[in-house]
Each structure stands twice: as structure tokens, then as C-alpha cells.
User: Fold this.
Amino acid sequence: MEILVIILLIFVVSFISAISHTPEAIGKKGEQKIEKDLNSINFWGYDGYCLRNIYVPRADGSTSEIDLLYITCKGFFVIESKNYSGYIFGDDRRQQWTSTLYAGKNWYGGSKVEKYKFYNPVWQNNTHITALKHYLGDISAISIIVFGGNCELKDVNVSKDNVYICYEKKLKKLIKKIWDNTPTRYSKEEIKTFYNTLLPLTDASKEKKKIHIQKIQEKQQGDICPRCGGTLVLRQAKNGIYAGNRFYGCSNYPKCKFIKNI
Assistant:
């Protein structure tokens, strides 16, 4: 009996550990940490409202999910949270960015390198800002892409105005710098009105979230592979640190290994 109890405990602990290390759980944890950082900024005399996971209606009837939004008298800080590992390469002109991981040695002693493509987060956040402006009017927005501490921004170049890239641990410092160099645009009453207008959009139903995902899939399903001209097919990673993540892979795999993350 005692052996069965021990086995059951080991199983439960392993199950909980596995759940807490899924990409979804890691992403949620990163967003919660950023939200905590944003709320703590207010203690430094910076008045603002923080909202997380906002489903903003778009002009085409779909929705745009914003990870985090910090509404202040200086403008809207629109924050996209990324939790990739390895070296990150990209700029604001390319559709795809790259995460490069070194995965040990191969059979002849050389370094094994794994590369993963993901959609340009600057473009992604620009979509969020466009949706906000469609919903609220011509607001003043600042785009910030925040990466977790498990990666290194190796070659990331962004030249657009009001677009910033940083690590999570440097987010508060960056916001304070932007704050000090940005004129006041909204009154306390105005930012409170914005907050009350957007707050209901954080309470999305399961059905609304399901439709949001379906719309994304409909837009991307059937796209043409930029490398070989094949069709991109919806798939799910089974192994590695991205296990469980959905992505579009080329129909000509394994001859063509192009992938496009959702």
C-alpha cells in the first residue's frame, strides 16, 4: 500500500511539473511577472492602469489579443511578451525572426543547431495597436517587445519610432526612461475612461477565445511556403522545448523544413 502511495505521489508531482513547464504555462508566468512590474511602477509616482489579455475587435470582425497594456497619461504602452530560448535574430523589416538553439553534439562531434522561426513581434504588436486605434480612435501608442531571460538578443535591429525591444528585467527602467522623455497626453480622467472602456474586453468567454484562434488559423491555413512553394499545413510540435506548440509546416517536409509559428 505504501509503495502505491509513493508511486501515486511521484506521478502527481511529475504531472504538475510537466504542466508548469509547457509553453503556455511559461508564457502565462512571464505575463504575470510583467504585470507585477507594471503595477509596482505606480509606487514610484507613475499613475497608470494595467490590463492583461485584452481581446480587441478589429475592422474585419476578428479580434486582436494584446498580452499587456499599460494605460498612462503619457500614452498606451502596448506590450508583447515573448519567452523563447537561445539566440534571437531579427529586424523590423523581416516577416520571420529566428530563435537559434545549440543542442549538444552530433554523431561526428560537430555542434547540433536547431532553428525556429516565429512571426515578427514588431509587426504583431503593430496589429494590436491598429486594433486599439480602430476601437478607441487615434490614440498615442508605444510598442514594447519584452523577451524573457532564457534568450539572448544576438542581432536584433529596430529603427521605427516608438518601438522598443528589451529583456523583462529591464522593462521598468525602459518605461521610466520613455516616461521622462514623453510629453503628457492624457488627463487622469481620460486614462480612467480608457481603462473602463477596455476592461470588459479582458473577460473573454471560451467561445470568443475559440473563435479568435479559428480566425488566425483561417488566415494562415493554405499559405504558400516562401522557400519551395509548397502548402503550409497546421501541425503540433511533439518533442523538445516547444512541445505542444502549434505551427505551420511545409507539405514538402522533410525535403523542406520551413516552419511558421502561430
Remarks:
- The two ends are 46 Å apart (CA to CA).
- Residues 6 and 12 are 10 Å apart (CA to CA).
- The chain has two domains: 26-203, 221-262.
